[in-house]
Amino acid sequence: MSKHELTTASWRKSTRSQQNGACVEIAQARSVVAIRDSKSPDGPVLIHGLDDWRAFVHGLKTGTLD
Fold it and tell me: Do 21 and 38 form a contact (C-beta atoms < 8 A)?
């Protein structure tokens, strides 16, 4: 994912997020998911493959990460 793609990506956060800015945002481009801190949109970004992201979300939903 290029810097241009990160800049122009459609970043989303949970509708359950508070308005204090302490949120995680995600964006999907091609076959990866980018994750960043909403307080620092120009800061570091984690990049993960879609399979890893899906496994992570599945683990959250099923409680296997508790």
Answer: yes
SS3 for 9-39, per residue?
CCCECCCCCCCCCCCEEEEEECCEEEEEECC
17-35 residue pLDDT tens: 777 767 899 999 888 999 9
Is residue 55 within 8 A of residue 40, CB to CB? The reply is no
The SS3 assignment for 44 reads coil
In this prediction the pTM is 0.79
Contact indicator for 18, 24 with CB cutoff of 8 Å: no
Rounded-to-integer distance, Cα 19 and Cα 17, Å: 7
* Token representation of residue 9: 């990506």
Residue whose pair of structure tokens reads 């960043």 in the numeric block: 36
SS3 for 47?
A: strand
User: In the 8-state DSSP scheme, what is residue 9?
Assistant: S
